[in-house]
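Deliverable D5.2: sample structural annotation.
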Amino acid sequence: MECILTADTGSGESEQYKVAKSIENLIKRHPKIETVIIAGDNIYPDGCFDIHDNQFNSKFRDVYQGIHLPFYLCLGNHDYHINAQSQVDYTHSQYNEDKKWNIPSKWYTQGFPHCDFFFIDTNFERLSELDVRKQLRDTIRSIQNSKKRWKILCGHHTWRSVGGHGNAEPKHEAFMDALLKRVKIDLYLCGHDHCKSLIMVGKHKIPTLVIGTGGKEYDESYFYPEKMDFDDSSLEYFSPNLGVCYMKCNDNSLSLTCYNERLQKEYNYTMKK
């Protein structure tokens, strides 16, 4: 299975178009790529009003018109400012007949050969305690029922990061701790900080990929390696550049290759089973 990973895309500005063109070229280089994953902040600055909002065109369809693949997304904090439910509703609307935009619910599972993606809603301050508990139960059950070799958790907010947003807020941290007491995952994928990084998370020893470089430039001064002291997490890679990650997996290995927007290779990380 081959796919593209990115996040923090929906600016509608030149930066997003640059990254979109790099995705098109990466697909030409790797024609077996079958999907694009966007880890939230799909529509800046405030999300959408309803399914008729033209931002679904100006900040998604127009930008990615040269990419003829399904996109699977989760909700970021900016997507919540006006009406997060509109992005779920758009998935099921007449405006999405080609099924290019996919957020079937606020948390969901999407299966591919060799791997399952478990998309979660990390906007915990926006969710009721009842919804947080339901999401936890649903996600545990989905991971337990997964027969795939690789299990990838995808949310918007950072779990560990050396960027400006830093480490997880208490409710997010509690959710991750409760989840990982019951199940195992192979990778946490997120955006939120507009940089790229690969971090091995403390006691869990789980890699987390921050890939929030799909549509907005990053201020290079927002770099705080001391945040890794929180639980002896270790920073393996950092880049402030725009770009994406190309993921490839089979039953024996999963590789992550990060590129800048000019498709210059920056980093590769490979896991084996």
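Annotation notes: The chain has a mean pLDDT of 97. The longest strand covers residues 253-260.
The annotation will be released with the project's public dataset once the embargo ends.
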